C-alpha cells in the first residue's frame, strides 16, 4: 500500500474507532486494554516492530503517518507509553528470543502493562550510582532496594529493573538489567501525588524478590549499555509522543488555544504564530531523526536535543496559555490548571533539561565533557546517593 493510501486507511479507522466525545471514564484501564487489542488487530500497534514478535514490520514513514493522523484524536494509550516507547524497544534490541516471544506480543495487544525502574531516592540524573542490589542465588537473583518516580507502576504487570550486581568495580560497570514481575510478593507499590493532584508515579520497595536468570536482559554487569539503549529510546519516544495518545485533550495545544482565545487580537495572533513555528520546528526535527533512522543512521544523542526542545515547548505552551487565559487558569477546577501544573514534569522525567544540555554538549557538539572524578573508583568506595 502506498503512503497516501495507508494514511487514508488510518484516518478512516481512527474516525470509526475513536469516540469523538472521549472514552468512558468508568474503568480507564479496561478501556485502554480493549482499545490496544483493537489497535493491534487493525495493524496499528508496533508499526515498526518485527512481524515475528507481533509488530507490523513497516517503516518510520507509516509510524509517522499514523501518529500524524492520531493527533486530532484522544487515544487512551497513555498507560502503555512506557512499554511501547521504552521497555519494548529495549527488548526488541537487547532481549533474548525467548524474552521477545514471551513479552512483546502481549505488550502490543495491551494485555500487559510495563514500567521502567531506574530512578532511586539517591540516583536520578546520576542513575549509575543506584543502590538496589541483585544478588545471585543459583538460577535466580534476589532483589532488595527502593525505586522512585516510577510512572504507571500501580498498573504495571512487568518492570524493566536496573540493579547493582557488583560493588567492587566502578559504578557504570557493576549494573545488570532484569525484567521483574510487579505482582510478585515482596514488591510494594506506593503511589506518589504530583502537584497536579494526579498519582501517576510511585515509589517501589523490593524485599527479597526473586528474579529467574532467564529474565536477565544482556550480560551480567553490562546493564549500563542496556540502560543507554532504553534511555535513547525514551528520549526519542517522548519527543515523538509514542503512545501518548494524540493532542486532542491538551488544552494548551495550538488547536485548543485557537478556539478558546480572541484570534481577532493581533498580539494574540503573533503569539499563536510563534507557537505554530515552534511546534513545526520540533515536528520537522523529529521527522528528520525518523528519516535518518530509516536510512540506518541512528540519531543517538540528538534524541536528547529533541527531548529538550519538547520540554521547552511544553513550558512555553503552558506559559502562553496562562497569559492568554489570565491568572484564574491555575485555579483547581479550571480546564487549564492540570495541564499547566503538569508542564514542568516534562523538564525532569526522561532526564532533566540540564542533563540533556550536558549530553548535547558532550556528544553532539563535542565540547569538553564534564569532569568524572569517580570514573575508575570501585562503587563500594564512593559516597554516593544515600550511601555512606
Ligand atoms: C513526570 C515524571 C515521570 C518520571 N517517570 C520515571 C519512570 O517511569 N522511571 C524512572 O526510573 N524515573 C522516572 N522519573 C524520574 C526522573 O528520571 C528523574 O526525576 C530525573 O532523572 C532527575 O533525577 P532527580 O529527580 O533525582 O533529580 P537530581 O538528579 O537530584 O537533580 C536535581 C537538580 O540538579 C540538576 N543536576 C543534577 N546533575 C547535574 C549535572 N551533572 N549538571 C547540571 N545539573 C545537574 C538537575 O538538572 C536538577 O535540576 C520521572 C520523573 C518525572 C518528573
From TrEMBL:
**Looking at the UniProt record for this protein, which Gene Ontology cellular component terms does it annotate, in alphabetical order?**
plasma membrane
Could you give a GO molecular-function term held by this entry?
A: flavin adenine dinucleotide binding
Question: Is Transit peptide there in the keyword field?
Answer: no
The reply on keyword Transcription is no
Q: Which cofactor does it need?
A: FAD
The source's domain of life comes to Bacteria
> What are the entry keywords?
FAD, Flavoprotein, Oxidoreductase
* Pfam (any one): Acyl-CoA_dh_1
UniProt record similarity statement: Belongs to the acyl-CoA dehydrogenase family.
Q: What is this protein called?
A: Dehydrogenase
Species of the source: Nonomuraea phyllanthi
